Every structure is written in structure tokens, then in C-alpha cells.
Amino acid sequence: MGTSERSRARHGTLDTYGEVIGLTGPLLPCVSFLGRLPTATIQFGSVLLVARTSGSLAAAGLTGGALALGQVTCGPLVGRLADRHGQRTVVLAFSLANALAVAALVTGALAGLPTPLLALLGAAAGATVPLVGPLARARLVALARACGAPESTVGAALGFESTLDELSFVLGPALVGLAAVLAHPAYALGGAALMVATCGTGFALHPTARAVRPAPARARTGTATADPMPRSVHALRAALALQGAMFGACQAGITALTARLGQEDQAGLVYAAMGVMSAVAGLAMAAVPARLGLPARWRLATGAAFALSLPLLRTDGLTGLYAVVTVLGTAYAPHLITVFGLTERTVPRSRLGGGDGVRDERRGRRPGPRGRGHRPSGRVLRPRGRVRGGEHGRRARLRHRPDGPPDDVHGTAGRHPPRACVRRGAGGPVAAPVDTPRARVRVGWVRDGRVPRGPLSGGRAEGARRAAGAPSGCGPEG
């Protein structure tokens, strides 16, 4: 591959991630990242905290195991509650409850409570984890689908969210290890409680929470049959469960080996080294050519994880441990991203954690009264040109063309190209699906009825629109 080809590929990858960020704006990724960071902190931090305060590794292991068991048991419940009642209410309630549970665990450990009570507090802390990461992933995919984004953008969205997960599991143990070296693990868990209360609340109240709407009342009361779960999803579940077991075994092995070497404080840093490489590999997944399908990627990532984990059986020194786990990290994120992509294409939309708020991209509408098009909050996919008229807060909606077939929601099979129009209504900027045969979409905010000028605005934008056969603009609807 020549220099120019590599440059084009690099810029294409950056543009794809720019479109992903453009779906929500830069604030939501920051808030969601900080909101999921406590999840990585409390798992590792609870073990170090109880080990420091009680002097017993057995008590620390029981507390950490109870926390993990509570999270595994109640995690699916949190997802179902978000499907039924919406992300905003569920995330807000669980964020505040988790902050109180983590604070209670820290207080109990410092007070020297017996092991059974500490295990109970650990289980409560795990059961109330708000699952910001999975819900953020469902929210971002819902926005991408509602805006009619291409599959490359949807895949990049999954990769971006998985990378944020990896980065959180890099910083979480590292912060705990740093706190243990400089002061006490309780400081790290206290900061986690404060962070989940503030950033979890911010994630819950962000306007994009409207992108994933709760299921209709008839679905919640059982009057409608739920979408059946395909059998193939069990293989994906098994793959994620096995990767989780491998992930936990690595964490336990790293902790045990560093303790045997008399360098317990290095455990978090070794764990972070593996996460750094995993995050880098996750970001690089956007550059994988589309001709390499998801099943092939799954097989390659699984084989790589198996092969790269074998040297752990012969590792007995700190330097070798750093080297082996750093290389092993290259297989984690690609496997996660690939399995998430297969899950997104296999599981019914109503059971992805986003509920019926995710638009059915095949028909261009969501279940609901009068079959109205889904109108998520956040950024706006728009054509290269201007959006005329309107005040701040007008909603952009897709005007369906009557001369297209039922499944041709954009009207491209008809004689007229689609138009993205601005309609009066309360609320913030929302997605406006626009698709023409040759006109690409751009991302931008609608403010005061205008789209900020960019590299393709003004006369050049109008020329591009006329070349594509699109109208030069549209005024307020109705």
C-alpha cells in the first residue's frame, strides 16, 4: 500500500469516527466514559480495600466475588428495566443507589465489619451497577440507525464504545493501584461513588436518552408477543461468557503472581498495560476492510486470544508478565467488538437494551401511535447545504414521498429526491434522515434555524446539491 493510499485510509477512519462523535456531540462520550469508570474501579478496588483493612485475602476474595455475582445476576434486569421504562429513569435510580452502596462498602470495610456483612455490601454494590457502558452502546446504535447511517458507521460506533470500555478498565485498576501506593484504596472507591452519582446522573439526563424509547404499554402488559430470540444468540452469549472468564482469570492470576513476587502494587499497572493495547487494537478495527466479514473476524480474534494466552502458563517474572499481557491485549477488544456487531445484527431491535425506540431501518418507522418516524435527540445528519427557516428547537423530520414503494422510505425509487424539512415543536436538535443517490450526508448542529458553516457550505454546498438532483433547501413544514 502506497503512502497516498495509507493517508486516504487513515483519513477515512478519522472521518468515520468523526461521524460517530457527531451523532451525540462530544459531551456524551465524556460523560458516559466517566460514568462507566467506577464499574472498573470497584471490582478491583473492593479486593484491595478489604485485603488492606482486614488483612485477609480470603475475606477480600469473598467480597469481590459477591460484588461480581451481584452484577452478573442483576445486570440483565437493569437492561430489561431500561427496555420497559426508558434509560433515563433506570440509569438515574441505579446511579444514585450504586453510589450509596459503594459508600456503604467503604464505610463497612474501614469500620472492620465481619466478612459476611462485607460480602452482603459487596453484593449490593454489584447489583446496583447502572451499566452505563451497554446502555451507551445501545443508545449510540439507536441514533445511528435512526439517522440512516451506513453499516461502516454502525460498526465504528460499536468499536468506539468498546474502546471506551477498554479505556475504563485501563484507568480503573491503575487509579486503584495508584491510590493503594500513595495512600489507601478507600480513596479510589470514594471517588468512584462520587463519580457514579454525578456522571451517571449526567448520562441519564442527557437529551439523547430519548433516542431509546420505552416499550409500548401493550408490550409491557403482555398483550403483544415479544420478538423471539434467535438460537444463534446462545453461541454469542457463550463466547462473551468465556471471554469474561478469561478476563477474570487474568486479573486473578496477575494479582496472585505480583503478590508472590512481593510487588502487589504492580497488579493494577500490569492490568492497565493489557488494557492500553486492547484499546489501541479496538480503535484500529475501523480500518479493517469490509470484505473481511464478521464471522471471519470472530474466528481470527478467538484464535488469537487462545494462542496469545498460552505463554501465560510459563510466565513467572514481572518483566515477562508485562510483555505477555500487553500482547494478549490485542485480542480482547477485536473479539468484543466483533461479537457486539454480530449481536446487533442477530438480536431483535426491541431486545437490544434500546427497546422499541430504535427505528426499524427497513421500514423507516418505529412501533407506536400512527407509526410516526422515530425522532431521536442529538446531532443532525444533513445534506451538504443549508437548512432554512425555523427557530431554535424546531424538529427536523423526514417528509415521506407518496410516489415511492412502501419500503422506499427515502423516496429514491420515485421521481423526486427526499427533503429534510424543519418543523415547529419543542425539544432540541434531532436526527433528520436524508439520503440521495449521490449526495453524502454531513453532521452538524441546527442552531437558530441554521446549520453552522463548514467545509461544504454556501455556494459549494448548493453546487453539490444541484449536481445530486437535491433541492436547494426547504422551509418550515406546515
Structure commentary:
- The chain crosses the membrane at residues 90-111, 117-136, 238-257, 269-289, 319-342.
- Pfam families: MFS_1.
- The chain contains 14 helices and four strands.
- With 478 residues, it is mainly alpha-helical.
- It has two domains: 15-211 and 233-357, Growth Hormone, Chain: A (Up-down Bundle), CATH 1.20.1250; 380-478, no CATH class.
- The strands form two sheets. A two-stranded antiparallel ribbon has the order 1-4. The chain has a two-stranded antiparallel ribbon with strand order 2-3.
Give descriptors for this structure.
478 residues; mainly alpha; single chain; Growth Hormone, Chain: A; two-stranded antiparallel ribbon; disordered C terminus; 14 helices; globular
Q: What's this, in brief?
A:
Residues 401-410 have a biased composition (Basic and acidic residues). With 478 residues, the protein is mainly alpha-helical.
